[in-house]
Amino acid sequence: MMPATNQPVAQIVLDHPETATIFQRLTIDFCCHGHQRLEEACAESGYDANAVIRELEAAIAARKTPTDDPRALSTPALIDHIVNKHHAYLRTALPTVVGLAYKLATVHGVRDARLYELASMVRDLSDALLPHLDEEETTVFPAMRAESPDHAAIARILNEVESEHEQVGALLASIRRAANDYIEPEWACSTYRRLFSELVRLEADTLRHVHLENHVLAPRFGGLS
């Protein structure tokens, strides 16, 4: 079924994962505010909903192979996927992008003062995410894996987790603004280009990661839907 303007954005991404890239580029939040209907999200961002629908439909039509549906995974299998794919990626990627951001600010900050702000924001993102991953892996996920999970207790924990997701989403949006939507200046060097490429990839992976937790995993325990 093709997406409709009255569908929640998160639902569209669950049904058609290839649309996530479009929402990322348009900066339409399908994670923390994925409950918004497409028409509302487009209105807030200044887009014509019907034009966005056409772009989404083109991406769906272009898909050549089916994708696995995370909703079909058991809770332990879904957690393993999140930890092994998304958490593992962040633990490797975050130190890399922090180092690149500070290197770029050191070399080119005099020419573009925004690079100092960008480096600070990337550090803030790393400082927010790494403890969050640890907390999920040592507390949240083991509680979900229990033979008889305490759904009420987990739902209370998820309130804090979802608040941290909001913070991460806000940081990603701030980083994108500071990086001018990742449009490189004409004088960009190889470090500049690599940093922006890594940040776009990190943003994409984190958005998908948070989307899975908020809209597939959490609802099984009374969290976001």
Q: Could you list some keywords that capture this structure?
A:
225 residues; globular; 70% helix; single chain; mainly alpha
Fold and architecture overview:
- The structure is a single chain.
- With 225 residues, the chain is mainly α.
- The protein folds into two domains: 9-62, no CATH class; 73-221.
- It contains eight helices and no strands.
- It has helices spanning 9-15, 20-26, 38-45, 49-62, 75-108, 114-145, 151-178, 190-217.
- Helix 7 (151-178) packs antiparallel against helix 8 (190-217).
- The mean pLDDT is 93.
Structural class: mainly alpha
Rg, Cα atoms, Å: 18 Å
Distance between the termini: 20 Å
Total DSSP E strands? 0
- Average pLDDT confidence is 93
Strand content: under 5%
Low-pLDDT ranges: none
Tell me the major beta sheet.
none
The helix fraction, in percent, is: over 70%
- SSE run: HHHHHHHH
General shape: globular
Supply the number of structural domains.
Answer: 2
